[in-house]
Amino acid sequence: MISPKCFTNTKIFQAFNSNISRSTSLSMMDLLMFRDIIFYEDRNFQGRSYECMSDCSDMSSYLSRCHSCRVESGCFMVYDRPNYMGNQYFMRRGEYADYMSMFGWSGGIRSCRMIPMYRGQFRMRIYERENFEGQMYEMMDDCDNIMDRYRMNNCMSCNVMDGHWLMYEQPHYRGRMMYMRPGEYRSFRDMGFSGMRFMSMRRIMDMC
């Protein structure tokens, strides 16, 4: 039997050994793709809790409030409004005993989205204006300042062709952020980001 020291998450270790005993075909990669986050009503992991292993569009069905959380494995994007709207924050494996103070949020987490593990190429086209108009540049790696690299002072739409990305309102990956999955995003304004410019972009490559 493999030692628990090989795993950062007890549930993954238990699933792996259970799988061996059943002689099934679950691979190590399947186990590494395991995602798990636990939300708590109060700070410091107190009060009622809700464990989530996938997307959740409205946490009010499970908790009336959320003031702390623990990411057991994987990476998640959390939102301060239902249906993946409002302010967003990227969470990797770790403990967040008082995330509201850390993020500067006045409200708690209301929805969350699981970020799948991805190991392929990354490719995204960014556009100066809405509906894929204006200057266009294709990116395959991180960019800490689109003004310095492309002489582009705004990004209002994009087409994510490969990979998962984070976009930031300030250079050097600072300020508010937005999670981008593969797909077409014709208008950031229509997505609720009116008046917000995105000035840096980063690939999500965390093993978490």
Outline the secondary-structure elements.
Elements: H1 10-22, H2 28-32, E1 36-42, E2 46-52, E3 68-73, E4 75-81, E5 85-91, E6 94-96, H3 99-103, E7 111-115, E8 123-129, E9 133-139, H4 146-150, E10 157-162, E11 165-170, E12 174-180, E13 183-185, E14 200-203
Antiparallel strand pairs: 1-2, 1-3, 3-6, 4-5, 4-7, 8-9, 8-10, 10-13, 11-12, 11-14
Could you walk me through the main structural features you see in this protein, from its secondary elements to its overall organization?
- It is a single chain.
- By secondary structure, the chain is mainly beta.
- The chain has two domains: 35-115, Sandwich (Gamma-B Crystallin, domain 1), CATH 2.60.20; 123-203, Gamma-B Crystallin, domain 1 (Sandwich).
- The chain has four helices and 14 strands.
- The chain is elongated, with a radius of gyration of 19 Å.
- One of its GO terms (molecular function) is structural constituent of eye lens.
- Residues 35-73, 74-116, 163-200 form the Beta/gamma crystallin 'Greek key' domain.
- InterPro entries: Beta/Gamma-Crystallin (IPR050252), Beta/gamma_crystallin (IPR001064), G_crystallin-like (IPR011024).
- One of its GO terms (biological process) is lens development in camera-type eye.
